[in-house]
Design a protein that fits this description.
It is a single chain. This protein has 170 residues and is mainly alpha-helical. It has one domain. The chain is built from six helices and no strands. Helix 3 runs antiparallel to helix 4, helix 4 packs antiparallel against helix 5 and helix 5 packs antiparallel against helix 6. Bound molecules: fe (ii) ion (2 copies). One fe (ii) ion (FE2) binds next to helix 3, helix 4 and helix 6.
Length: 170
């Protein structure tokens, strides 16, 4: 479970429990989905820079760069599916696709939350093991900062969806 991997502890979550559904969905899309897209682009750029700068000495960085790209591609597809199917359905039932597909879609999205969380945490650990301690344009610190920002964003994002948004509807 996501709340076993990360402690949430945000009082803001409680406020969203009773917020109107359209406001909650707009918040998820305009805050968390936007933030995830920006932070994933930053992680992909930093991983590509790390490969260019120190990839020859640290060949493990190639796999990390590829896995960051995979994580980002999968998570973009996940958010697009929410924006095109589930969220429209939550606002106007039937507008996101056949009604009978919505419960299995929620199950799929929750499974993806767990899978993406696991992959992200493995990636962060792998990158710490392969980056040089200093030099190389301060890559270790910059990548570490980007991972922490992404973790914080994912923590709020996935908790809000799994524990508040999805629970309010099904
Ligand atoms: Fe989302
Ligand atoms: Fe999601």
């Amino acid at each position: 479970m996501i709340d076993n991997l990360w402690t949430h502890g945000s009082h803001a979550v409680e406020a969203w429990e009773s917020a109107p559904l359209p406001e909650l969905i707009i918040h998820v899309v305009e805050h968390y989905h936007m933030q995830a897209r920006v932070l994933m682009a930053r992680l992909e750029n930093l991983a590509a820079e790390a490969v260019l700068l120190v990839g020859e000495e640290q060949p493990g960085l190639l796999a990390i760069r590829d896995q960051i790209e995979r994580f980002s591609k999968d998570f973009r597809a996940h958010m697009t599916m929410e924006e095109r199917s589930l969220f429209p359905h939550l606002l106007v039932p039937g507008s996101g696709g056949p009604l009978e597909l919505m419960p299995p879609l929620v199950k799929l999205l929750e499974d993806e939350h767990r899978a993406e969380t696991g992959l992200f945490l493995r990636l962060r650990t792998m990158s710490e093991a392969h980056l040089p301690m200093d030099g190389a344009r301060n890559l270790r610190a910059r990548l570490g900062h980007a991972f922490r920002a992404m973790e914080k964003s994912l923590q709020g994002h996935l908790y809000l969806e799994t524990q508040v948004l999805f629970r309010r509807v099904f």
